[in-house]
Amino acid sequence: MRKAVLFTLLSLFLTGSCQKDDLVNNFDSDISFEVSNHLLNGKHINCIDIYSERYVAIGSAKDLYLLDGSDQDIYTLDYDIYSLAIASDKSVWIGTSGGGLGHLSGKKFTWYTNANAGLPRDYVRHVEIAPDGDVWFTSCAFRIGGLGIFDGEKFEFLTPENSPLNQNIVEDLEIDADGTVYIVTTGTVGRTNIYRITNGSWECLGNEEGTFYWIFSFTVSHSGLIYLVEDFSLSSTMAANKVYRSKDKGWERITPEDFPRISYFSSIIADKRDYCWLAGTEQESAYLQVFTGKQWIKSSGNLFPDDFITTLEVDGNNNIWVGTYNNGVFILNQ
């Protein structure tokens, strides 16, 4: 592990006031694709978690960056970082490929693995912190493991054998401000489901036998709307990927028939206005499309030239953080 303090100012700008009367959830209704800040130039970004506009964790391959105002601390781990979650005490939980579940508190790392904590695998793809402090994470493979919960003292693992999960693989995980947990299962095509867990009570948001072909990522909006990309990349039918949002007790497709091709593993995030941001790629450059609830609005095709968007996050001031494959993090003020 190494630690360095970088002297690049993180001038976070992010509190610009809105002068317009056209507001959505107290935020300006206009969409901006203008880049207001660029961090970690030249770095490959795996994941981002935002505690506040001045305290952010970013995973870049094996490097963990902690941005605290104008200071940046770097910790180089032995494993690739796949997911980050900042707890209320500003400690950081880390999902890795090969190292299991990590916890950085102060300057000390603690690691939980198959050997010392009974994790099904030392591969943790997603980790989230519930409002009560419980750590939820995924540790799974085809017919192995499932959803993990750590309450600070003991681990619990939910699988198809002891829970309503219809498959072992939990492909994505989100927890809202009220503590409601959302997960999506995969493993067998055509059997993907989204479950909502509220105070220990499970609800399948669709057909118990399988609702979607495959889902790599989804997002839950400020008001509880769910957006997802149904992915047909594994299908021989060459069917187009589609975006859906939850509606009443069902699902509504929101991409028209002539919608641009949605690439494999497209990142998606809902902002504070309930707008849906979707990453796209054309001619080897990345762009963004935003669904406002009424229409799709697309950025220029060369917003991020010769690059690919790896992750999207939104902060408390509704600014969009865009992690890229080749060139760090871009921030779009809204």
Keywords:
mainly beta, 4-stranded antiparallel sheet, 1 helix, disordered N terminus, 334 residues, 1% helix, 5-stranded antiparallel sheet
Describe this entry's structure for a reader.
The radius of gyration is 19 Å and the shape is globular. It has one helix at 114-117, and strands spanning 5-6, 23-24, 27-28, 35-39, 47-52, 55-60, 63-68, 71-76, 80-86, 92-97, 101-105, 108-112, 127-129, 135-141, 144-150, 155-158, 169-175, 181-186, 193-198, 201-204, 215-220, 226-230, 242-247, 250-253, 268-270, 276-282, 285-291, 296-298, 309-314, 320-324, 329-332. The protein starts with a strand and ends with a strand. The longest helix has 4 residues, at 114-117. With 334 residues, it is mostly beta strands. It has a 5-stranded antiparallel β-sheet with strand order 1-8-7-6-5, with no helix packed on it. Strand 21 (215-220) and strand 22 form a beta hairpin. Residues 1-20 have low confidence and may be disordered.
